[in-house]
Amino acid sequence: MTIYRLALRHMQLMLFATLAAFMFVITIDKWMGHSTWAFAVAVLMLIAFNARIRLFNCPNCGKNLFFRGSIIVPWPNKTCGNCGADLDAGG
Ligand SMILES: [Zn+2]
């Protein structure tokens, strides 16, 4: 499993978690009426879950696969934007 594949899997998990959080907020809303706390809990869970994003770094130079400069994008780099290493090699 390459770092790129692991990052892709993380991205898929995040998509799933976002959907789950969305369903959670809708369910609580229907069940207990409109609530801000359900939304807050969902956002906090997503932030906590996404903390793993910091672990996906280039093995060569340590640049994060999800960062483009100072911007975070939801899809990982297949080639390191800093040193040009192939992040899907050897897997
Ligand atoms: Zn690199």
Description of the molecule:
With 91 residues, the chain is mainly alpha-helical. It has one domain. 48% of the residues lie in helices and 4% in strands. It has 2 helices and 2 strands. It has helices at residues 3-32, 36-49, and strands spanning 67-68, 71-72. The chain has a two-stranded antiparallel sheet. A hairpin with a 2-residue loop joins β1 and β2 (71-72). α1 (3-32) runs antiparallel to α2. The protein binds zinc ion. The site of zinc ion (ZN) has 8 residues, from loops.
Topology:
Blueprint: H1 3-32, H2 36-49, E1 67-68, E2 71-72
This protein binds zinc ion.
Zinc ion (ZN) binds next to loops.
Largest sheet: 2 strands, antiparallel
- Element pattern in H and E: HHEE
Taking the alpha carbons of the first and last residues, their distance comes to 5 Å
Tally of DSSP helical segments:
2
What labels would you give this structure?
91 residues, mainly alpha, two-stranded antiparallel sheet, 2 helices, 2 strands, elongated, binds zinc ion
In a nutshell, what does this entry contain?
The chain is mostly helical and 91 residues long. The chain has helices at 3-32, 36-49, and strands spanning 67-68, 71-72. It has one domain (3-72).
